[in-house]
Amino acid sequence: VNIGIYINILSWTLVIYHYTKLKCHIVGKPPAVINLLCSLFAAVAAAVAWKHCQAYATTKKLLPWGFYTALSALMICFYSYVLLAGGNPPPKKKPAAAI
């Protein structure tokens, strides 16, 4: 199995995710699609963390497997925070000050 194909697909998914997030942020509408993609990335991070945790348990090497496991766990925490917080809401427009 050529893992490069999966990495390429995941990379382009991340590019599309961030492009869509930026467009939603500029327009000011709540990003419903962003929450769906965020949950997808959280699931991918959980799968990667599980595989790295298995590799760490087998080899007991802190570098690279322990580091990768910790990094994947941080990604899970970040995406869980974004999902629980309801995404990154667009900034509220401040009313113009009367001069």
Explain how this protein is built:
- The chain crosses the membrane at residues 32-50, 62-84.
- This protein has one domain (3-84).
- The protein contains three helices and no strands.
- It has helices at residues 3-27, 32-59, 62-84.
- α2 packs antiparallel against α3 (62-84).
- The N and C termini lie far apart (66 Å).
How are the SSEs placed, and which strands pair?
Elements: H1 3-27, H2 32-59, H3 62-84
Helix pairs in contact: 2-3
Keywords: Membrane, Transmembrane, Transmembrane helix
InterPro entries: TMEM14_sf
Transmembrane segments: 32-50, 62-84
What fraction, in percent, of the residue positions are helical?
over 70%
Helix/strand structural class: mainly alpha
Tally of individual domains:
1
Mean pLDDT: 79
Strand content: under 5%
Distance between the first and last residues' Cα:
66 Å
Characterize the main sheet.
none
| Series of secondary-structure elements, N-terminal to C-terminal | HHH
Question: How many strands?
Answer: 0
How many distinct helices? Answer: 3
| Gross morphology | elongated
Q: Would you identify the regions where 5 or more consecutive residues have pLDDT less than 50?
A: none
Radius of gyration over alpha carbons?
18 Å
